[in-house]
Amino acid sequence: MQFDGLLFDVNSVLQHDSGWKGKVCIDEESGIVHGRLLQTDDVITFEGKTYEELVNDFHNAVEDYIVCKKNKKFGKKS
């Protein structure tokens, strides 16, 4: 499936420098790509209308989650 000129499939995953990964899903009707952070039971999501927006939102979600985990505002990494 193509999004913003790039090819995605059902196994598309983004990875943050810290090791966290996010599963990517494409909503063809809305033209928005969204995803969910893996390796945790907490629901942490990200989205974008372009690849750049998607990656930026993913990195922001991971960095916010790391801060929240340090402050013990979320559960444990699984």
What is the topological layout?
Blueprint lengths: L1 E2 L2 E2 L5 E3 L5 E7 L4 E6 L7 E4 L2 H20 L8
Shape: elongated
Q: Compute the CA-based radius of gyration.
A: 13 Å
SS strand fraction: 25-35%
Sketch the major β-sheet: 4 strands, antiparallel
Distance between the termini: 30 Å
Unreliable parts = none
Question: What series of H and E elements makes up the topology?
Answer: EEEEEEH
Instruction: Say how many strands there are.
Output: 6
Name the helicity range.
25-40%
Number of helices: 1
**SS-based structural class?**
alpha+beta
Adjacency order of strands in the biggest sheet: 3-4-5-6
Rounded mean pLDDT is 83
Task: Give an account of the 3D structure.
The chain is an alpha+beta fold and 78 residues long. The chain is built from one helix and six strands. The strands form two sheets. Strands 3-4-5-6 form a four-stranded antiparallel sheet. Strands 1-2 form a two-stranded antiparallel sheet. A hairpin with a 5-residue loop joins strand 3 (13-15) and strand 4. It is elongated, with a radius of gyration of 13 Å. The N and C termini lie far apart (30 Å). The model has no long low-confidence stretch (mean pLDDT 83).
Task: Write a short abstract of this structure.
The chain contains 1 helix and 6 strands. The protein has one helix spanning 51-70, and strands spanning 2-3, 6-7, 13-15, 21-27, 32-37, 45-48. It has a 4-stranded antiparallel β-sheet with strand order 3-4-5-6. It has a two-stranded antiparallel sheet with strand order 1-2.
Please name the defining characteristics of this protein.
alpha+beta; two-stranded antiparallel ribbon; 26% helix
